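Work through what follows:
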Amino acid sequence: MSQTETTLDLHDIQGNIVFGYGRWGYPLSRYLFFKINDKRKGMEFLDSLIPLITSSAPLVKQNKGQAPTATTNIAFTYAGLSALGLPDDSMRSFPEDFRMGMKARKDILGDDGPSAPENWDPIWQNNYDVHMFMSINASSEANLKKRYDAVLSRLKKTGNGVKLLDGHRSGKGKRLLRYQSGNAIVLDGKPTANEHFHYTDGISDPVFKGQGRTPSDTIGAGKPTRGPANTEDGWEPLQTGEFVLGHRDESAEYPIAPNPRLLSFNGSFMVYRKLHQNVGKFTSYLEATAKNYGDKELSDDQKQETLKAKFAGRWSNGAPLATYPDYASAQKFGQQWQDAVNTLFYDANATAEQKSTAREIYQDLKIKRRAFNYNNDIKGASCPLGAHTRRTNPRGSLEFDTPGAFDTPGAMVDRRRILRRGLPYGDSSDRTDDTSEHGIVFMAINASIERQFEFVQQQWINYGNDFKLSNEKDVLLGNHALDKKGNPQGRTVINANQSLNQPTFMCSGMPRFVETRGGDYFFIPSLTALRMIAEGIIDPT
């Protein structure tokens, strides 16, 4: 496998592009949104923030040998860049999707019914103008507040020139906060990678050239080749230009980007979406439907876990159905994983030999969670064709019955990948509750919002024809409709697996499990571009 690397100036690229902060010891976050009322004050505020901005360079190299206690990154809407005085020629050179913004693209995204913009948090309503996004990630609440206070002290100097917007629903939706919180879900006193449906999240984020990742990191996370799925020969890193502007993408071209080059180079586009999870509906639907599913020898709880895995394409512990198709094998994987994690990270009495063994097991299982494709499961017997992870990252399976039809198995997929960032928000300890504010702050980073995020959302999540599923929607994220009487109409087919005594099973009457609560499209400039914007020296000529 060719591992030719692209050399990136990591000190120039904002840190939330090249790596996500959650797995680097920053389980807490606040997301802030600003309106720029005065161009000059906005430029001064931006200039004062630049020393706080975290780049994609190794964290210890940004903070005198120690990782910072908090990170900060910023991005702008189209209206925000205009408020900062970017020249008209530069503004017109941005892609149409970004210029229109998320609300105007609601029909493409399927944001209808309870997900329609009129139901979003107040901050996204017409009386607000969101211009600038800021994320603060931190290792503790104290460090989070310290960085937040540092931002507010800079904001205060602008007078009314820049305003921190409120309007984020919290609790039961009655309180409105000045920031949107994000927090890793804590179980048994330990932060986890879980989301509120209790799936393990963020396992196979794309690997691309220039990140400095090892060949083993690319297994299952890069783009598929014709090699074995569980080896380095089966995967290659994606081209940098799929995620970072100014670099070649999978079509060997440079992605569409605004002028001048220094404005867009090393930048990217970001989709911010607040997604509410209807935990009560999900729990009750799963309990009622799973009673009639699968092997009669399984208990009701085991049937629920099995059907839940079929919805996602993974078991709750992260084991992929393509590799671990039955309950027993998945539970064995989960126990081995948990034992290795406990020994490696939490057992203060473990010996050096025990930790070494646990590290080997941990690294092996970590690869097994990612190292799979669907070549031996074309009909979806193990992992249904409509499972969430299979729809959002088909891993070359869109060749269907004609393997080798394309030059590469990922020809229809490699240009649709997105980097996923963000954290859960809220508390879902009451598993019957839909009304409290809990869900995911979902951020997608890509070079083309239309070609990557919007395509996946429209064609793969809310329409199933590419998977030979007609208009069947993604179980977890689909905008399942209601009939005229208000009855939910979502459905999905769980393919038969006769070797596991799993007949074909139809799930019907499925409600909408996830609803949009707001968001917009943002441009993430490089550190160089941020300085140019702050100094007012963007010149498209």
